Amino acid sequence: MLRLGLVPLLALALGASLGAVLPRDAPKQSCGLAKYRFLAPRELKAVRVMKEQFEDIMLLSNCQCTTRLFHRKWSTAELSVPDRVMLVEAELDLTIAMLGLPTTPGFAQTRQRPLAFLSQAREDLRGCVATETPSHQPSGKLRHWLQKLQVAKRTETTGCLEASTILHLFQVLSDLRCAALREQCP
């Protein structure tokens, strides 16, 4: 029979227990965007209902925007993965800010689910930016769009930004899906 001394036995027990607690070169986790590859039908329906209700409200107002933020000469698929993540983060920041504006009680209720969904997506995306692209510099296309976004925030009315953002919400969701794919996207 094998006899072990007290000190080596304690060292062996301590090593085994620490090994179970401390991670061993675990494979790097994805940044959590995989769940956005295919959006849940209930989330898409909530966004569609909100957009339709907003369009009905908007018929009563006359909003003229000069900046066309969501009309780009390039597609999201042309961007690198880090650029896609940065683009979607900026789009989600704007969208969440616009959905958080005061509004009528009925529309406030309608936009709660899309707002919660988009807020969660932004938090997941921020985890990706922090871990995967901490020092990434945007491409010329993206840098130009980000500058255009900053100008629009300074020069456009809040109503115009809100309308533009809500009316192009499915484009934002498509860009989110594209960023989640991590490879070629449509």
UniProtKB/TrEMBL annotation:
<feature type="signal peptide">
    <location>
        <begin position="1"/>
        <end position="19"/>
    </location>
</feature>
<comment type="similarity">
    <text>Belongs to the lambda interferon family.</text>
</comment>
<dbReference type="GO" id="GO:0005615">
    <property type="term" value="C:extracellular space"/>
</dbReference>
<dbReference type="InterPro" id="IPR038326">
    <property type="entry name" value="IFN-lambda_sf"/>
</dbReference>
<protein>
    <submittedName>
        <fullName>IFNL3 protein</fullName>
    </submittedName>
</protein>
<dbReference type="InterPro" id="IPR029177">
    <property type="entry name" value="INF_lambda"/>
</dbReference>
<keyword id="KW-0964">Secreted</keyword>
<keyword id="KW-0202">Cytokine</keyword>
<dbReference type="GO" id="GO:0005125">
    <property type="term" value="F:cytokine activity"/>
</dbReference>
<dbReference type="GO" id="GO:0051607">
    <property type="term" value="P:defense response to virus"/>
</dbReference>
<keyword id="KW-0732">Signal</keyword>
<dbReference type="Pfam" id="PF15177">
    <property type="entry name" value="IL28A"/>
</dbReference>
<dbReference type="GO" id="GO:0050778">
    <property type="term" value="P:positive regulation of immune response"/>
</dbReference>
<dbReference type="GO" id="GO:0007259">
    <property type="term" value="P:cell surface receptor signaling pathway via JAK-STAT"/>
</dbReference>
<keyword id="KW-0051">Antiviral defense</keyword>
<dbReference type="GO" id="GO:0045087">
    <property type="term" value="P:innate immune response"/>
</dbReference>
